[in-house]
Amino acid sequence: MAYKKSFKCILLVTNDKRHFFTYKRYLKHVTEYFKTFGAEVYLASAENLHVLELKELVSNICDSKLNQNGIKFTIIEKLYPIKVKSRDEIVQAADKIKAHIRKEFLRRETVSLKKIKSKFQDFGLSDSCFSNHLSRVRKELEDEGNEIVRTGLGKYQIR
């Protein structure tokens, strides 16, 4: 039952908002619990706390009167649940990117993968995803009778 002065650990927040701090090495042991019961899990930095061993953690979670709510902590990273984009959000993002690419081509602007990536960097997509959107729009415009020429490395424009 050692107290840690300053420590990086796992913070479990139960549905009833009770906090429990345990060692990072126990994360894989409590995975089933937080997935089943919908608890939130964070990597946190805390001071002056008693870090719970696995046995203590289990008994404390089972006793609804026990918690570690009074401890000051700083959240470093949210580990669970990870926000997953819905299918609709993904489709909306793809439509927005393709509409922008199409608009730039039709304005006779030079369209490059670099410009697209910088404009939509907050979407968290890979280079290959942006490249795929660019290729699809290019193909659609060519099928409509437009001639698209390569003006440089990764740069395209309607002639």
What is the chain-wise order of helices and strands? EEHEHEHEHHEE
Computed structural class: alpha+beta
Radius of gyration: 25 Å
Total discrete domains: 2
Can you walk through the features of this model?
The chain is of the alpha+beta class and 159 residues long. Helices cover 40% and strands 28% of the residues. The chain has 5 helices and 7 strands, in the order ββαβαβαβααββ. Strands 2-1-3-4 form a 4-stranded antiparallel beta sheet. Strands 5-7-6 form a 3-stranded antiparallel beta sheet. A hairpin with a 5-residue loop joins β1 (3-13) and β2. α3 (87-106) crosses α5. The longest helix has 20 residues, at 87-106.
Short description:
The protein has five helices and seven strands. It has 159 residues and is α+β, with helices and mostly antiparallel strands. A hairpin with a 2-residue loop joins strand 6 (148-152) and strand 7.
Keywords:
alpha+beta; single chain; 4-stranded antiparallel beta sheet; 3-stranded antiparallel beta sheet; 28% strand; 159 residues; Arc Repressor Mutant, subunit A
List the helices and strands and how they pair.
Elements (H helix, E strand, L loop, with lengths): L2 E11 L5 E4 L4 H11 L2 E11 L3 H9 L10 E8 L6 H20 L4 E2 H7 L7 H17 L4 E5 L2 E4 L1
Antiparallel strand pairs: 1-2, 1-3, 3-4, 5-7, 6-7
Helix pairs in contact: 3-5
